Amino acid sequence: MNILIAPDKFKGSLTAEEVCSAIATGLRTLHPDADIRFAPLADGGDGTLAIIEQCLHLRPRQINTCDPLGRALTVTYLENDDSAFIEVATASGLVLLQPDERDPRKTSTYGTGRQLRDALDRGKRKIFLLLGGSATNDLGLGITEALDFTFYDAKGKQIRPNGAQLSSIKQIRYPTHRPWEEAQITLLCDVDNPLYGPEGAAQVYAAQKGATPIVIGELERGAKHMASLIGEFTGVAVDKLPGGGAAGGIGAGLSALIGAKLTGGFTTISHLSGLEEKIKWADVVISGEGQIDEQSLQGKVVGGVLELCRQHKKECRLFTGRSTLEKDLLVGTKPVPVHEIMELAPDVEAAMRDARAFLTELASTS
User: Fold this and answer.
1) Residues 160, 234: Cα–Cα separation, whole Å
2) If you ran DSSP here, which 8-state letter would residue 301 be given?
3) What are the CA-CA distances from residue 202 to residues 105, 109, 137, 196, 209 (Å)?
4) Given CA atoms 351, 352, 354, 360 in this order, what sign does their dihedral have?
5) Tell me: the pLDDT tens digits for 100-111?
6) What's this model's pTM, rounded to 2 decimal places?
7) Smallest Cα–Cα separation from 262: which of 194, 188, 201, 183?
């Protein structure tokens, strides 16, 4: 039997590689002669860069830049001869701030822009920005500032953009040197939230970045204002762009201002990793993530793997910490068993802490 294990991470517990290992340990007690192969996956969120590094022959590139509050920081992105892979969270991530420093009015993506500028200046013509985990809500204007865009208020005074300044910006000026026009910039994200509204960047994500309800309203008004201004300036409507709200609006801002292309991270990762060929090889495919819900089936790892299994008529099973879906999903006409750690664990804390052992036990008895 050929078994392919192709999961996402279990966030807060295990990396995708560790999930593969735990499940494989259990499966080998049931199928000692099986050929078991790993295909750890991601969809543009946390952990995607590590998966890409496994798929491609990449070199680290270290540069000096700054964190979301402008403090000096040394970060690394990955590259090969013509491509660069930059994770927004390395310079603009929430993990870089103490809890009492989190405030999306004050944070900027300028540090990520310095990475992008470095890659462009060094001749990289395929650049991938991974949008998960930002501490910002500046629509990526900090990134464009690092590319020499300038922003002005109603009195013609230059503004350094951040969340608090969005509503004050009345004019945008392009730089004369535009290296991004010779490059293909792809934004990898794992959400399809629009820029603003009930499902938008501020209302869904800003609270975890330190915003109070009053601040969320301020950010929402700023995003609406900038969507209108960007539309007038570029002719590109970004207010309803799927994924425009990713990473505090980076999806919207960079799509319009520098022509970046938004795409689901899973599509890119599955292509880079040769996932479809691996699924063709397998008799059984196992996938999963920490929690499986309706969103899991919409452009994320689990949904993507299920669709490829449906296309190639492969048996599939899912492992998860907890599922809010039906016990056995239907993919086409085939049932897909869903095995949950919470069937074994006494509580969520134990499930998170001992996820490896519980996954192994599930795989050895399912």
Assistant:
1) 20
2) H
3) 11, 16, 7, 7, 9
4) positive
5) 999 999 999 999
6) 0.87
7) 188
